[in-house]
Amino acid sequence: MRSGANRFAMFVLLLAGLWIFVYWKTESPTSDATSISVDPGPVLPQPVVAKQPDAVQPPPKTDTAPADVVPPDNQAVKPTEKIIPPSYRLYTIQRDDTVQKISQRFYGTSKYWQSILKFNDRLDPTKLKPGQEIKIPENPENIQGIPNPNYKEQPPAPTPPNEPPKTAAEFTEYIVQSGDTLSEIAQALYSKSALWTIIRDANRDQLDEDGLNLRPGMVLRIPPPPQEAR
Question: Of 153, 170, 178, 182, most Cβ neighbours within 10 A?
């Protein structure tokens, strides 16, 4: 009976010891973790890495027309010009271009491709080459010149006035001397006595038909010598 009691007591002690052992094993990590501190050691400086600049991307290629443009129609056209001459811009053909595509690019429609061909009379639409330069009309409906709607007919230039008739200022004067006759005066002044009638006709207000009423002191108008006397 006593031997059985001893065994029971030992069993209880063994069970208690097992319970204490299990309890200590489950609780010790937490308690140890709160009491242990780890020295992180000296802090090493981190290397500075230079930031590389972002790669610069080339600007996208655009299919815009060159800037060398001839002044467009209806600008700087004088109202005295009856016809508006065609104007154009230069364009360099790009890869895969067609005249229809070029018309669409400049006019918003492909229907003016024939205007481009007519403006470039030697252009073969089946043999467009990149880098080839062609002319693009500013107005696809003006490739040969169109009437100027602002044209104003100019008045004709005034005609110069007719040459005024010869005046008395072109005559010279001769004072009749004693013994003078019209024939002698004509001989002296024109080298031909037969031209005396020219002197008589220029002085009809003083002389009669025959010129016989010539008297000394009379002032006669002497016309320039005729062509035959020069």
Answer: 182
